[in-house]
Amino acid sequence: MLANFTSIALTIVGALTWGLLLGGISRSVTARIHGRMGPRITQNFIDLWKLFRKTSSIHHGGMFWMAPMFRITGAICVLIMVPLVIGQSITYNMSFAGDVFLLIYIMFFGCLGMALGAGNSGHPYAVIAVSRGLAQMSSYELSFSIAVVAIAVGLHTFKIEGIVAAQQAGITSWNVFRFPFASAGALLAFLPMQMAYPFGIVLAPQEIPIGPPTEYSSRMLSFMFSGRAVFGVAKLLLFVSLLFGGASSWLGLFVKTFLLYMYPVVVSSVFPRFRTEQSIRFLWFIPTTLAIVDLVRVML
Amino acid sequence: MYCNQRPEKPGNKKEFLEKITNMARANSLWVTAYGTGCGAIELRPLHTSRFDMERFGIAMRPTPRQADVLIISGYLATKTLKRVIRVYEQIQDPKYIVALGSCTINGGMYFDSYNTLNVLDKYLPVDVYVMGCMPRPEAIIDGFSLLMEKIKDGRAQGWKHYKENLDYYRENQKKIITDWDLPDYNW
Amino acid sequence: MVSPIYILILSLAVGFLLSILDKGGRKLSLTAFYGVLTFNVAVIADWLYRLVFLHVPALVINTAGFNAPISINLELGITEAFVLLLANLTALLAAVYLLKKFKEGRVSSLILYLVLIMGVNGLVMTQDLFNMFVFLEILSISTFALTTITKTSKTLSAGFKYMIAGGVASTFFLLGVVFVYYFTGSLNLGFLQAGQFTNTGLIALFMLSVAVFIELKPFPANGWALDVYQSVDSGIVSVIAVVNSAAIGFVFYKIMPLLPQNFLTVFGIAGVVTFFFSNMMGLKQENAKRLLGYSSIGQMGLLLAILVFTANVPANIRYLIIGGLFLNHLISKAGLFWLAGIVKQDKIKNWGVLRNNKPLLVLFGLFIFALSGLPPFAGFWAKWEFVKVLVDAKMFFVLTSVLVGSLFELIFLFRWFTSVVKDTDTASEPLVSPGKSKAAPVIVFGLLAVITSFGIIRFFYQFHWIQVLPVLAVLVITLIDFLPSKLKGFLSLATVAGYASYLYPLLESNIQLFFGVIFIIGSAVNLISTLNRKNQSKGFYGFLLMMIFSFGNLLIASTYLEFFLSWEFMTISSFLLILRGQKAQRASLMYMIFSTAGAYLIMVGFSFAPALTSASALIQSIAEVNLPLISIIVLAIGFMIKSGSLGVHIWLPEAHAEAESDVSSFISAILLKAGVFGLLMVAISYVSHAPSFDVFYWIGWIGVLTALVGAFMASFQEDAKRLLAYSSMSQVGYVVAALALITHLGWVTAMYLAFNHMMFKSALFIAIAGIYYRTHTRTMYKMGGLISKMPWTYMTVLMAIIAVSGVPPLSGFGGKWLTYTAFITKGWYLQAGVLFFASGVSFLYLYRLIHTIFLGQLKYEHQNIKEAPVWFIIPQYIFLGGIMAISMFPNLIIKPLNSIAMRYFDSSIQIDGLTIISDLGYWNGNMVMYVTMGLFAVPFILLMLVKGKTQKVKQFNIVYAAERPESPQTTHIAHNMYAHYRKALGRLTLPRIQNFWNGVAEWAHTSGGFFRRVYTGNGQTYVLHIIMYIVVIYVVMGVQ
Predict the structure, then answer these.
(1) Is C436 exposed, middle or buried (0-12, 13-18, 19+ CB in 10 A)?
(2) CA C565, CA C74: separation in Å to the nearest integer?
(3) Fewest CB within a 10 Å sphere: which of A152, B4, C289, C894?
(4) Does C268 share its domain with C328?
(5) Into how many domains does chain B fold?
(6) Which residues of B touch C (CB under 8 A)?
(7) The pTM is what?
(8) ipTM value of the model?
């Protein structure tokens, strides 16, 4: 029991650290792509601490308060329901609570809370961003879910451990190779999931300042910040488990998540942004079709 | 619909934590994206690869709620002052003002204009002035390093001063803005 | 024991004496006049009593002291007595109705009236063909003379046309009589036999029958009759439409045994055609009396068709069908014609004046319902049995025409009814209070309709009293309607509780119990929200109880008929409840049309079904019945109409939105589940007797697409209740899809979803009801920021939308998990993907709902708004408690559902402690709840500790590009919130299904209008029609 709690606590702290670090690295990488120096790798830690220590003198109401909680709870729930390292059962944390569908749905928990908080802030831009975000989310979930269904059907299990266990026979047994089309669909869905360009319509700092968190400041923002960091790691873990054979060692875990994290960062740096309806249509057609190809393959 | 409460006066913080936090604050200056005057044009090169202010942890934020620094980039028209006050008051504490160019100090080439402020200090607490017309990006970076020094030493207390002397600032502001239709307190 | 011959004698004698009596004052003559009419009724009633209860043999009266065939003989059997009783009764009441006219008019009209009645009596009783001709002529002439009782150019021309047509018909009849005598040497029906007419002899029968048939006004040779119906005084028209038609119809009935089968078939089909086209043309009719004319002609056509097509049916059923329909037609048509005379408005639109007189309005409704063939009135039972007969005889063309025709009839009748109840654009002059003489006949017939329907229920079908409980509830509540609303509400609640405890021991299985919880407990909790009603809310609780009881009766119905009866009671009561909404005219009409279409399909489906083998509840016994494929399809479509599946859903948003806000929750949360219950019933039979064609595969796709389209549609609504309505459609789409899996897990899913939907949708609708109560608007962008004003309601909506969306830890996730597991286990992968998409889209509308109402900017006009009344809050929180309970302990519901579904399939899930394990995955609802709650608490406490001093700023204090918002309206993002999504969908957002149904309606109306053009109003043309019609019939019958 105590070991479990310790494991969970460590997982959370670890994910936060790794998430912030990845964020810092990604800022650096983006800067290098731009031909700049970029900030320190630890910049995100500094930012977080600063935000945490800034005073919050205002709020907009109850939901506004709760949103960061929703955000962070949703993130941690996903995190601790994914098994981390295969074979080390202590790192499975709470993954006995449910299978891959639980994970997908609990991912909405944070988004929902965020959206509610944004609504409660009373800022029009926040809501515009939420409406875009929801539209985009419903679209990328289509291809993502079909990809997951294809994989789950192909391996005949919904269990994360089961899906990971099926990929342990060398690199070629990874789902990304066994289900190339579904994986392509899921990976295309991963871009909007990470709010990477060309799907960056939600935060869109140029037109709807930063989107949902427009009104958030200081401490509440710091909670969101950490929530986002943790959530990022959780999504990485999910994708690594689904497509890239899971992690059989700690090193593998870090390497795989790192590489996967860099993929949207790199794509993001070189693309302009879609408009909302373009983004929706793209997500409906290209990744969904790809995912369906594998689904049909599995059905046959 | 707006605010009707005076701002809380800041209390004293714990020494040790404050020191660490000041380090963090100095290295993570987020700037409100608000170009008030012609000087804004000189801020753009700061983002790009030549000067790259992100390496100092300086980043632009599109909303004042999340920012630390307000840059008054050059001449400030009375019309703009109204907005600037609102933006400044919406920034959460601690917050800093960097004023660019001669105009903010004494009116510069607009010293006798009917609608330009001459001395910004009377209306908002400026932490760092950067001279020049306009100051080049290097000068601005220099100004920022000065600000960072001040923050680290805990000397950048303009925001405290503003809160403590709110009545003084308001009086001056209202003298300029004759059609004062702002809420009295913008938090 | 007076011989009925005296009816003829007395009528004639008094008729002749009247002009003399009139010299002694009108009072004297009127006394004699009414005396005779009453005498007629009494004599016939006496005879009917003897014939039926004392089993006296049929009376044969030989006139002039000789036996037939030398003399003319009259016969009075049960049928004759029945028809004559009703005819004479109608005649008496019509005379009472015409009292004022008779008082003021000339004495000749009294005489003519008596002669007419004499003709009718003679026509029915006589057995001699020539005598029949004489009576026909008497009838014709006296009718013509009576039509001109009010002399306007219209009545004169109408009467003249009537005369011409009658003349043509009589000529043929006379020729027929001549030929009959020529070929057989006899004119007495008792001595004529079908075998005597061969080859050329048939021409005699043809002429005879076609003449009678023309008198029955077949389409299209009936223009002359319509003009009469339209222009002549209501009292007289009621006699023509009902009494005359009855007599002539009876003549046809008498000569029917002589006619060869091909004649009969052609006449029967012509009757059906008449029924179909009359009702179709009625669609476009706006003149009340002409509309009734169309309906009368249609009804006579139907009656004729029934006479022909039920020839081989057991006598008691045949009597029920013919008698029921005849009685129904007679009562309601006469009643409506009389009402037309009272209202004195030509345009049906102007009948809204009836609202000033509640009793008359009730009677009007009663007649409309009876005429449309709704229970408990006689027409309902007749239609049910007739459909069964047609199905058994495999006469599908006739069946379709009759049902479509009935639907047309129902459409124009209910358009009329809803317009009377609701239309604001109505005549301004008040209703002149009818005198006693005018009101009394209408009331008598109203009572007669009620009495006969109870007679049929009690004596023919011998139903248990619980089957008519819905109607009793209405009657009882009507009696205590003067009580304040709240008291009635509490009484209703107590009644529902009593009903539940009565029902509980009658339930035989868990599946009934489960739906019992949804139907009865769900209704009871929903009922609490109605306690907020002020004043008396007359009539509300009666229909509400009727609906709740009919839900319950569905569960214990043990025959098809009982089920269908409860189903129709449910439809009626919900229709009347929806109609109460302020602008519900169109919505309720649409609901009624779709429901009835569904009901017809269900009726047909049940008629196809083989007989039940056990006496237990239908949901149980249907398992042993092998439903044929056609029955499954038809029933499924019928039930899916009720559950708002894609394609037939367009009634749903309208009805939900326009019903009163505390009614909407019943419709969405519970009524839709009745459709699910029905579908489940079909599926139960399907499980053990699967036909070759996989119907449920396609039903599954329909369900899936319903879920998707419903979600999209919901996202684009501006009206909160329409949004919820489309959401209901979407959610029930999930249920239908899961049900269609026909697997253990599928059914567990379907029932889980149904239960969950009942709870959260009730809570949401009641929440919206509370908001509507305070803000008086349903348009979401007119609200906003209500979270600070209505925090309790907000909490409900928040929890409910989490439960809808399927986000853990609330119960919605259980539904999602079960759905995907079930679909993937079954192998419906693509469907699972589409459902996932639908569930993603549902976030859009859910967020829109909560944001545009509760978050964002508070409007100026809502600054001082208060929390919703406590009566709205209580049921919301009861449902919320339910949601929390099954979220925390999913086993509470999964275990019973598992056992229910295990009756039909092997279990496919294991319940290991708190974890539910399927073949593919697992889910531990408790743990998810604990984890989420725990994780929520930690940062929450942390933030509370470090938050420092913060103040809640006012709503306009936002970062607004350094500016200040002008007004909440411009700052609140709510209107057309998903414009981008609409743009992305492009042409897909076109309302194709709506357009399709609009097209159907347009088409029906246009063709109605097109066929109507045959009625030029020109007497010569009409004669031409008749002649041509006879020629066509002649050719079709192939008479040599």
Answers:
(1) exposed
(2) 41
(3) B4
(4) yes
(5) 1
(6) 1-5, 8, 34, 63-65, 83-84, 86-87, 90, 182-183, 186-187
(7) 0.93
(8) 0.94
